[in-house]
Write a structure and sequence with these properties.
The complex is a heterodimer of chains A (167) and B (556).
Chain A: E1 2-11, H1 16-26, E2 30-38, E3 44-53, H2 55-67, E4 71-76, E5 82-93, H3 98-109, E6 113-117, E7 121-128, H4 130-141, E8 145-150, E9 154-157
Chain B: E1 2-3, H1 4-14, E2 19-22, H2 29-35, E3 41-44, H3 48-62, E4 66-70, H4 74-78, H5 80-88, E5 93-99, H6 115-119, E6 125-128, H7 135-147, E7 153-159, H8 160-164, E8 166-167, H9 189-201, E9 205-209, H10 211-216, H11 219-229, E10 233-235, E11 250-253, H12 260-268, E12 271-275, H13 281-284, E13 295-300, E14 314-317, H14 320-330, H15 338-350, H16 362-373, E15 377-381, H17 385-393, E16 402-403, H18 414-424, E17 429-435, H19 436-439, H20 446-451, E18 457-462, H21 467-476, H22 491-498, E19 501-505, H23 511-520, E20 525-530
Helix pairs in contact in B: 1-2, 1-7, 3-5, 3-18, 9-14, 11-14, 12-15, 16-17, 16-23
Classes of the chains: A alpha+beta (167), B alpha/beta (556).
């Protein structure tokens, strides 16, 4: 069992997300993260889906996704050279003074932006791979995380290679 | 200018929908108004579920796409069981539903239901049509999706204001355009070569053929491969009729209620050639003990079925008929294999005769039916013991003469599906083999057969039990018959009330004359056979056991 990253090109139509999410839940596949948005080609969207499973399960996930009429292409990019990012917003308890200085120092090290400062809280914005965000979350926990939201992973193949709509 | 409803009806005609099964309601009134003078035959059923099953039976009997129509909300919801039944058995179906007007969508309006959402897990694809101008293309795409690749049901949901909108557009000509949908028909050359080698080398090969062979029209290819290479054949429940029952290489049905010969052969074979099958648990039993010593070639049009339940050595994605043709072209006729064939013949001959010693046995009734109908019949069944007795004892010689709910196991399926089968193949004698429990699930369709004089013959194997459930209670729950006993019903009386003739049969000697009377009557007919109450379906592989661990080889 390991985490696989799937890149899925789909028709940008109403109900596509529901079809894909439904397929995962109905067949007992566990989605770790799913990020979706429009892409370079009109009428299409790119999805990055992270799913936990063994090789046979991932093979089945890919085949079942391919059966959906609105799915144009499915690729497992886990073993390929990719760049991947995730964005997280973290609201941390940070009273002015020593605590806030500590939070800001950690933010600095992780190259996170402070995008809001309240009387007792700050909000950090951080991008990076999932591990970096996990690490930041762990460090900030000692101060008290009020709210935490992350986008899920998005990824592209490096260099000339890409996932295009031509099947 | 014309309405969206008019465009819909024109589009249906262009796709060749000659007969549709439906039930009117508020949201589909514009369509019904167009149907009033359209050259499409509409059959009014008594319950929407029956409309879906009838369209399904029509599709299975003819190989064409079946069409059903229902109104929004309850009408649409009543189609769901029929759509799910078609989905599980890969039956091409287009279900059209009315919907509340677009401006009321999502407001919990009167008779609104999110039918595209509800049916998403049980359709191949679905459409909510939001613009009248899209109706033509959607209908074209829907028929294309339903009838190609691995066939299945497609839902088209149309809001009422889309039906009444005025447009100036003709149904599109040409092909469907779907960039995400390109089924594979030709098998991969390299895999075909591997298959040819394995078939040549095998000492104990077995063909395991299913519904995909029927859908593909590949019966002839299966028979040729079997005869050329001397390979015995086991068919699944859905594959009955793919090879004639009396063909010397046919070992009969495989699986939970399959024959000893088929179940032993799969256990001992060294090569399993699986064609148009999906390794369903009702066939394989304990999956690890299924074909434990065999290499496996799996031919299927749906890539997702290959390796889903059982790892295979040679996967071939493609149409069963086309792939088998490619294989047969490369094969050299096989001699020998006498030991293997003799062994399978021995199993076949040793099979226990399971006729009841006394009383009215279901096997006897089915055999008499088979004998009388010969090559003229289409047998449709309900679900349960009646279904298995029909599968075991009727002699199917041609594809599309056996119609039964295999995957979903839908009680109440048979009677309406038989109505659909009649409209697809009016030249054949259509028989619904029913249990008293199943028949009561869609008994109201007696009204439909009476109204349209549909000459369907209903053979009720009446044991006043939910027979298959009772059998399981007998075998696995210490005979505690919890809520499976049904009181006696005067089925002939009910049939007569609808204007349908019938006979009740209680003695063995009356079986043949009663069947003859039914088959020579022009109209519908109901036969109520009062069978032995606790007759069982044997042999049987208990759920989860290995396929060769059969119980009850002798009738109790």
């Amino acid at each position: 069992m390991k985490l696989h990253t799937l890149h899925v090109l789909v028709e940008n139509k109403a109900g596509v997300l529901a079809r894909i999410a439904g397929l995962f839940s109905r067949r007992g596949f566990n989605i770790e993260s799913l990020a979706v948005g429009t892409c370079e080609e009109a009428g299409m969207s790119r999805m990055t889906i992270v799913v936990l499973g063994d090789d046979a399960q991932i093979e089945q996930v890919k085949k079942q996704l391919n059966k959906l009429i609105d799915v144009i292409k499915v690729s497992d990019i886990t073993e390929q050279s990719t760049v991947s990012r995730e964005l997280a917003l973290i609201k941390v308890a940070a009273e002015p003074g020593e605590t806030r200085a500590g939070v800001m120092q950690i933010a600095n090290i992780f190259r996170a932006q402070i995008i809001d400062v309240g009387a007792k809280t700050v909000i950090l914005e951080v991008t990076g791979d999932s591990e970096k965000i996990d690490a930041l979350e762990t460090l900030l926990r000692q101060y008290g995380i009020k709210e935490f939201v992350r986008t899920g992973k998005i990824a592209l193949l490096r260099g000339q290679k890409g996932i295009k709509s031509t099947k | 200018m014309k309405t969206g409803a008019k465009l819909l009806v024109e589009s249906l005609q262009r796709e060749g929908a000659g007969t549709i099964f439906g039930y009117p309601g508020g949201s589909v009134l514009p369509i019904y108004d167009e149907l009033y003078d359209a050259p499409i035959r509409h059959i009014l059923v008594r319950h929407e579920q029956a409309a879906a099953h009838a369209a399904d039976g029509y599709a299975r009997a003819s190989g064409r796409v079946g069409v059903c129509l229902a109104t929004s909300g309850p009408g649409a919801c009543n189609l769901v069981t029929g759509i799910a039944t078609a989905y599980m058995d890969s039956v091409p179906l287009v279900a059209i539903t009315g919907q509340v007007p677009t401006f009321m969508l999502g407001n919990d309006a009167f008779q609104e239901s999110d039918i595209t959402g509800i049916t998403m897990p049980v359709t191949k694809h679905s459409y909510l049509v939001k613009r009248a101008a899209d109706i033509g293309q959607v209908v074209k795409d829907a028929f294309y999706i339903a009838g190609t690749g691995r066939q299945g049901p497609v839902l088209v949901d149309i809001p009422k204001d889309v039906m009444t909108a005025q447009i100036d557009i003709e149904p599109p000509i040409g092909r469907a355009r779907l960039r995400g949908y390109q089924p594979t028909y030709e098998g991969h050359a390299l895999q075909i070569e591997k298959a040819v080698t394995l078939i040549g080398e095998a000492e104990r090969p077995l063909l395991y053929v299913g519904g995909g062979v029927i859908a593909s029209g590949a019966s002839e290819e299966v028979r040729r491969l079997a005869e050329l290479m001397l390979i015995p054949v086991a068919t699944t429940l859905m594959g009955l009729g793919a090879v004639p029952c009396d063909h010397p290489l046919n070992l009969g049905m495989i699986g939970m209620h399959g024959t000893e010969a088929a179940n032993y052969a799969v256990t001992e074979c060294d090569l399993l050639i699986a064609v148009g099958v999906r390794f369903d648990d009702r066939v394989t039993g304990k999956i690890d003990a299924f074909a434990p010593n065999a290499r496996i070639i799996h031919i299927d049009i749906d890539p997702a079925e290959i390796g889903k339940n059982k790892p295979v050595d040679v996967p071939i994605v493609g149409d069963a008929g086309k792939v088998l043709q490619s294989i047969i072209r490369r094969l050299i006729k096989k001699e020998g294999r006498e030991m293997w064939l003799a062994r399978t013949r021995h199993w076949k001959e040793a099979q226990t005769v399971r006729d009841g010693e006394d009383g009215l046995s279901p096997a006897h009734i089915i055999r008499e039916m088979s004998d009388l109908l010969g090559d003229r019949g289409i047998v449709v069944t309900e679900v349960g013991q009646n279904q298995m007795w029909a599968a075991q004892h009727y002699c199917f010689r041609r594809p599309r003469t056996w119609i039964s709910s295999g995957g979903l196991g839908t009680m109440g399926y048979g009677f309406p599906a038989a109505i659909g089968a009649h409209f697809a193949r009016p030249d054949e004698t259509v028989v619904d083999v029913a249990g008293d429990g199943s028949f009561q699930m869609n008994i109201q369709e007696l009204g439909t057969v009476a109204q349209y004089k549909v000459p369907v013959k209903v053979v009720i194997l009446n044991n006043m039990y939910l027979g298959m459930v009772r059998q399981w209670q007998e075998l696995f729950y210490d005979r505690r018959y919890s809520y499976t006993e049904l009181p006696a019903v005067d089925f002939v009386g009910i049939a007569r009330a609808y204007g349908v003739d019938g006979i009740r049969v209680e003695e063995k000697e009356e079986v043949r004359p009663a069947l003859e009377a039914a088959f020579t009557t022009d109209g519908p007919f109901v036969l109520d056979f009062r069978i032995e109450r606790e007759a069982n379906v044997f042999p049987m592989v208990p759920a989860g056991a290995a396929i060769n661990e059969m119980i009850g080889r002798r009738q109790r």
